[in-house]
């Protein structure tokens, strides 16, 4: 579905869908004179984004930087841990229950603790992003690395490949699709984790704009910030899909 | 040259055909990049006959079957007649018992529920459907496996479940697309003899695809050979080996004569596919 | 067999962790600000026991109601998408985009819309659960093998039979994955939803503990949230193993 060629008809359908959404939204809010604090008009939101562009742009970069750093660290931890577990299987009995236990706690419940541990700066947001992504990547990478059948592994062994040879030439390529799936799911989660953490305490970032604007009853700014964040996370998502196609050329 | 081997015995058969194909074509793709999968096929099958269809892989056998089952519409050049009635496009759906190449069992259904699927679709009550299926279990060698799931069965057993499903869909014309293609040689020869027993008892008209010449001769009243793609009928040969046939029939001189003749034709066509592939 | 299952379950590991926590914190003199001693956490839990129970129930209720409504709507939407191709083309990509909206940021607006009641948290939980369930329902329904569809058609199956006997069972494992993602998001949504103003709930207590920097209380709440999560996912896992044990081939 992702890899299939996107035809101009698909694009047209999306554009029509989006246009319908915006026209209905704009028309309905104007027709029923809906106040801004209930639902602002899309054109007003667009204007608010233009007006506050400097503030929003800075906040967006801040949030994206936190998300990116957390994403990279968390992905490395997840993949690295999975590789260790495959190379040294007994570790799984220790690591997996711990990982499952941590994952049973909804990650937002760790936000207050992260703020106390790492302060109001970028550290706490990065920690939340790491937490949001590491587990899902670990799970996906582990199941992917274990995917090759015994027959394939035995074939590699008959060629004289050792553990690392099998890992590098067989397990990692086989695991690529599920690792990338994990990264994609994790990206959305870590964006949300970062913004939630920013809302509870931060010096800058989209979540902080949302928090302050809410406190000042400036809902137009809330919408402006959220829509910008959505565009930002869509751009990140687009990058990941492009990487996905490069990495997994054989599908 | 192509039709030189058509035996007079087929032309001499004047009973009304159960299934008749007249100038059937199937082309895929847009006109500029067209694949002709099936070309100018004429074929007649008598009621109760067991016809085997053999041809190199990719020659259009499955496509032909899909047309007879009503799954895809033939091109407008010709027509398909069932019991002398011309069939509309897709009009054959639900009229022919069709068994595709893979067993296609549903993993979430038990053996018996897989077998009764077509009856359920026809609206037969669950109880009646089960009763009818249960009667067939000993004959299909599946006794005691009624409540097993497909993943618990061997390849041969899965294939028998798929065959039972096809037989429970009681239609006079049965299409079997390489049903034993994935089985090992021993299981396969046992399944062949067993299929002949079942056929002798139920007497349906059977059209059976295979790429194994021995299988085609051993099973069929008539062997039809298709050419390399674009596939058409190259020749047909009536097999007059006595029935019931034992495994030993494959070592008789008569069998070997037929085999030698068919082998020459089939090899010629296979070589065309092979040569085409290396050129392409 | 029973002992094996026990060894593989996280239970013994949790006991080991608790022991480690109990022994290591005093031994290494870890600051209570980072990790309070286990004894302090247990004592704190006993002191807020009634509040904790009330909060647990409240958050559980918000999550479960939001999840079930979200699941019903999500499955219906997924079926609609599978049914009408134009709807899928025009709206589905927008759905995928909306999934990445940090809706939680709209918490304040939702509270304005629905009042400072149970309903506003339910709506946030519902919204979060809805998208992955809708997306996975559509993906699952599209997974049906074309050859099996051809077989069903050769039996003369109607589109209703095709859906009930083939497409839906094929889709169930994928839908189940969506349901589990939706469940975890609904729980997160309920907790965060409470931050926008309420008096009962685990989310409210988390916020209070943060303001007063009560680290042992935070740990009590984290463990309680973990218990709630385990309860919910455990239930979902049980249902899955009982009813949807097959996999797509
Ligand atoms: N839906 C289709 N679209 C395009 N080409 C097809 C389609 N179905 C079959 N073909 C082509 O028709 C030819 C015959 O296929 P098939 O009937 O499956 O062969 P066989 O069963 O004899 O091995 C093949 O070359 C195949 O590529
Ligand atoms: Mg075929």
Number-wise, the strands of chain C total: 0
| Intertermini distance of chain C | 29 Å
Number of domains of chain B: 2
CATH superfamily heading of chain C:
MetI-like
List the secondary-structure elements of chain B in sequence, H or E: HEEEHEEEHHHHEHEHEEH
What is the residue-mean pLDDT of chain C, rounded to a whole number?
87
Main β-sheet, spatial strand arrangement of chain B: 6-7-8-3-9-10
State the total count of DSSP E strands of chain B: 10
Low-pLDDT residue intervals, each spanning 5 or more residues of chain B: 1-12
Quote the CATH topology of the largest domain in chain B: Rossmann fold
Biggest protein-protein contact in the assembly: A-C, 51 and 53 residues
Name the CATH architecture of the largest domain in chain B. Answer: 3-Layer(aba) Sandwich
Strand content of chain C: under 5%
Calculate Rg of chain C over CA atoms.
22 Å
The description of the largest β-sheet of chain B is:
6 strands, mixed
- Overall pLDDT metric of chain B: 87
What overall geometry of chain C do the principal axes of the alpha carbons give?
globular
Rounded to the nearest angstrom, the radius of gyration of chain B is 19 Å
Derived from helix and strand composition plus strand pairing, the structural class of chain C reads mainly alpha
Name of the CATH first level of the largest domain in chain B: Alpha Beta
Count helical runs of chain B. Answer: 9
Describe this structure in words.
Chain A has 251 residues and is mainly alpha-helical. Chain A is 80% helix and 0% strand. Chain A has helices spanning 8-31, 42-51, 53-87, 92-104, 111-118, 122-145, 150-158, 163-200, 206-215, 219-247. In chain A, helix 6 (122-145) runs antiparallel to helix 8 and helix 9 packs antiparallel against helix 10. The longest helix of chain A is centred in the last third of the chain and has 38 residues, at 163-200. Chain A starts with 7 loop residues before the first helix and ends with a helix. Helices cover 36% and strands 20% of the residues of chain B. Chain B has helices spanning 8-11, 61-68, 111-115, 117-122, 126-136, 155-168, 185-202, 213-219, 253-279; strands at 19-28, 35-45, 50-54, 79-82, 85-86, 97-99, 173-177, 205-210, 222-226, 233-238. In chain B, strands 6-7-8-3-9-10 form a six-stranded mixed sheet, sandwiched between helices. Chain C has a single domain, classed as MetI-like fold (Orthogonal Bundle), CATH 1.10.3720.10. Helix content of chain C is 80%, strand content 0%. Chain C has helices at 2-8, 11-28, 38-47, 49-83, 85-99, 107-114, 118-141, 146-154, 159-193, 202-211, 215-243. Chain C is globular and about 75 Å long. The mean pLDDT of chain C is 87. The interface between B and C is medium-sized, with 22 and 20 residues. Bound molecules: adenosine-5'-diphosphate (ADP) and magnesium ion.
